Amino acid sequence: MSFTKINSFFRNLFRREEVDQQLDQEVSSYLAMLADEKMARGMSREDAVRAAKLELGGSDQVKEHVREVRSGAWIESLLQDLRFGWRMILHNPGFASLVVLTLALGIGANTAIFSVVYGVLLRPLPYANGSKLLVLKQQATKAKLENVPFSPKEVFDYRDYNHTLQSVVEYHSMSFLLLGKDSAERVQTGVVSANFFDVLGTRPLLGRTFVAADETEGADAVLVLSYEYWQRHQSGDPNVVGKVFQMNNRPHTVIGVLPPIPQYPSENDVYMPTTQCPFRSRPRTIENRQARMLPAVFGRLKPGVTLQSAQADLSTIARQLESSYPKDYPKEYGYGLAVAPLQDELIQRARLTLIVLLGAAGFVLLIACANVANLMLARVLKRERELAVRSALGASKARLIRQLLTEAVMLALAGGALGLLIAPPALQLLVKFAARFTTRAGEVKIDWPILLFTLLASIVAGILAGFVPAISSGHQITDALKQATGQTTASGSRQRMRAALVVAQVTVSFMLLVGAGLMLRSIVNLQRVDPGFRVDHLLTLRISANFSKYTTNQDFEQLADNVLRRLNVIGGVESAAIVSNYPFSKQGIISGPGNTGIQIEGRLLAPGETPPQIDLTVVSPDYFNSIRQPLLEGRFFTDHDDHKAVIVGIINQTMRRHFWPTEDPIGKRITIDQGQNWIKVAGVVGDAREYGLQHDVLDEIYVPIKQFGGANRLVVRTATDPMSMVPLVRAALHDVDPQLAIDQVDSMDRLEQDSMTSPRTTTMLLGIFAGLALLISATGIAGVMALSINQRAHELGIRLALGQSKSSILQMVVRQGLGLAVIGTILGIVGALALARLLSSLLYQTSPTDVLTYTAVALVFLTAAAISCFVPAHRVTLIDPSQALRQE
Known about the structure:
Layout: H1 3-14, H2 16-40, H3 45-56, H4 59-69, H5 73-91, H6 93-122, E1 133-140, E2 145-148, H7 152-161, E3 165-179, E4 185-192, H8 196-200, E5 206-207, E6 222-225, H9 227-233, E7 244-247, E8 250-257, E9 270-273, H10 283-286, E10 296-301, H11 307-324, E11 335-341, H12 342-347, H13 351-382, H14 384-392, H15 397-434, H16 448-472, H17 477-482, H18 492-527, E12 538-544, H19 553-567, E13 573-579, H20 586-591, E14 596-597, E15 599-600, E16 613-619, H21 623-627, E17 631-634, E18 648-652, H22 653-659, E19 669-671, E20 679-685, E21 700-704, H23 705-708, E22 713-718, H24 726-736, E23 741-747, H25 748-754, H26 757-791, H27 793-801, H28 806-835, H29 851-873, H30 881-886
Parallel strand pairs: 4-9, 6-8, 16-21, 18-20
Antiparallel strand pairs: 1-2, 1-10, 1-11, 3-4, 3-7, 3-10, 5-8, 6-9, 7-8, 12-22, 12-23, 13-22, 14-16, 15-19, 17-20, 18-21, 19-20
């Protein structure tokens, strides 16, 4: 665009009066010149002026044509449309309020859901070049193990021999005790390579992160605090750097604080270098290729290297390791290595659920748009004479359509603004919901991308809602001018259009209701599942001892004995037990079962056959009695099952059925360490849903704590409300050891309910969307019926005058509305059958084609439709035939 055009654009826009004056002068000068020419040819002045005006075609028309084509005219025209639209909105506040509220519900729901979708799925990682970050996963595909932990030695191999990664860093998480406060505090500690945060590209908020010197032997113990821990436990103290914490019986100096970043694979309070961890730094851990204690390894791609190239490179290393160390990587396990972008790993558990919810919210907005389109169609019908007059005065069809679309978009923008006020309260619930799936939930916020989405959603909603009424406004303008009485009637095409919009609303609403119904049925099925033990009156908690104080297995065994002895003398405690992982624990549900390969005595594996995998749980003797898990065969553990006795185990019913379906399992032996030690089956207990009601029962073996150790969770059977016993239990534990850290205090029945929170919340959100859709659709049906009755008042009056009963007319009108609902329901069934399969992975013992759900939803919808039809149809009984006949 040239400078002259730009100057003309701004001059026309901001100095319009001056430009109009110049236009008046130019037109007047041109008229005078034409008149002078005609006078020179012999005309009188009066005739010359008249002829000049006729030749020009009217000065006002010329001026209007010039205004339409000059630079910036479209903005002036748009401003005129906006001013007129604003007057029309003020002239009909009831109509405008209904439209704004309807769209606000749809846009607000989409804004809230999209905020979570963008923050979790789409927002770039808050790391430097986050798209280059990878997660390395060691797998044993033939054993169906997707994430085998790494040993330090394996990490060194992948770090040293790869050609595609800039760096490879390790990570694992442990719990340590922080001393020096009123009571010991358990802190979750991420143990990482010194360059861990450099590879992530994370700069500290305060202080510094680790350097190579921090990972050398004999270096001072240092810590980096997570942002959340700094805020929660240090009150955001800006002077926290340099503070000394007592951990593992040695001082640790805080050197930095991290910014708020998503932590993966788990959230930690603090971080330390690998050499500061007393377990990771042991020589037997570093040198043992099978000391697999590192659940996550990260890497960063070199510039120009693709994910596929890195996968090929690392897979080559994995094959070389399998070939060089066949005992560590048995071929029957199928060891290998897979890489995945870190961003994909962070969101994989959240993706499907959030997409389903976003789709549901989008459906609600479409239904709202269809409902508003119907309202605006009715509004256009009332304004038909006004539009016809404007057309007769020179307004083009395109200008009329643009004016109606402008009004619709203005209303939609107002709905979007109101939706932004509705979104934040809903967003709080959604963020808590998303946090169950991903650590990226903390990044969810309403910022400029969300505002831009809301703006675009509002404009699109306005266009969708206004398009059909605007297009229909150009029809039958001439007929509207011919109507002498001022009555307006809807054409057949417009009535069909309104009916089609109602059918579309019903179709989409039915699909949403089916989705909510399937999830509800799934929840009902889930709540009927027997957990396999009694969840009432059961207190659960975790205890952490000072590792520096308890250095041997005998120390921990004595601590466990002292803890149980002390708890069992508390009034109101019926029994207590220690377990490595109790059912429904949050960590267990997130991490899933441990996979332990076994070999059964006397059963040889075929060449290439993978050893069976089972889950192993360490328990104290009174565990089964405490949770009321029934004994089916054999015996429970006793205090005599210690390191001096024969190693024994108790299996669950599922494991018995899989491995000894027709044999007596008592006395059978299995090994988990390739025959170095054998575990003799001493009993069989009922199945317990260890990892959530929705998960299948796994092959499980329970082993005694005195023979295996490694348990630090407590279950306490109480005679009263378990939470009321917490102060007494806490005091008893501190009597045993004041340095014991106690956390994760909860009741088993609440843990059971929490395990169903995700599907329950998904069901609730889908139910809310479905309810909104049903409400909007029902009002749409009622609106169509009310307008139809109003337009057919004369016809209905004739029917009444000719003797047709009011009840038969009422039935006829209701059948008309129900016909639309039935068509929409049939189409909704087809659509639901096509889309419900997307929910299959979210359902429990519920088919996506569940007949009962579809039938129930159809009955609910048709009942709501019948009520929506009956309310306006009841007006038929109020029609006075004589008055109705005089209206025509």
